Known about the structure:
The protein is of the alpha+beta class. It has helices at 22-37, 46-53, 57-69, 96-101, 124-127, 164-167, 174-181, 200-206; strands at 73-76, 79-82, 87-90, 107-118, 134-144, 147-157, 186-197, 213-223, 228-237, 241-244. The chain is built from 8 helices and 10 strands.
Amino acid sequence: MAGQRPGAPIRAGIPEHGRIPKYYAVKTRVAALLDELGEGGPLPTERELAARFEVSRETVRQALRELLLEGRLRRMGRGTVVAGPKLEQPLSLASYTEGVRRQGRRPGRALIGLDRLSCPAGLAPDLGVAAGEPVWHMERVLLADDERVGLESTYVAVARVPSLDAEFAPDSSFYGYLRERLGISFGDADERLETVLATPREALLIGTPPALPMLLIHRVSRDTEGRPLERVRSLYRGDRFSFTAHLRGEGREG
Length: 254
């Protein structure tokens, strides 16, 4: 359709009967305003928007709530500003650090905890160890330009990385440490992607409302020799991330 953004909903989300909720009409007008303001531009207050569009503040609030969930807006102090584009993370064996750097952002991680524990029976097959053998559990907040954007929980056998607590810098890339310090390279991995809501603890660590949708990736990785290496649970803010993948088919049958 002429004038429609690539990837936008068909007919801009307007149903065939042509009737749209009042909040959605306001949302469309606010979205156009965001393009004028540009990234980082402060949004007028709810009161000002309600007066401009001649609707109630509750109608404006519902429109802004959806734009926040979609990542078009973000809170800054007591106000709201236009958000930048979402971070695109490839579904590949590239690390989070590499993915963020490719987009000109500064990656980082803040350590929540690094603990040595006995491997639970349900985790043992993924790490190639027996139940009860020692494993590391490392939990870190993911950062992009100092903005908290996710939470990462990694399990790895102590036998594979015995000096993790002494040698590894928690704010750096774990994959880089394995490759450069231990000579371990990733061969392949199995991943599962789903949408979830953060738990109260996760929302507090990431700094988001509990109702914000999250993208959750479960990954079980192996080295180039096929030996189990790690199990990772990565939680990403749905308003700040999108994921990309390159797919290749064997043919073009219809």
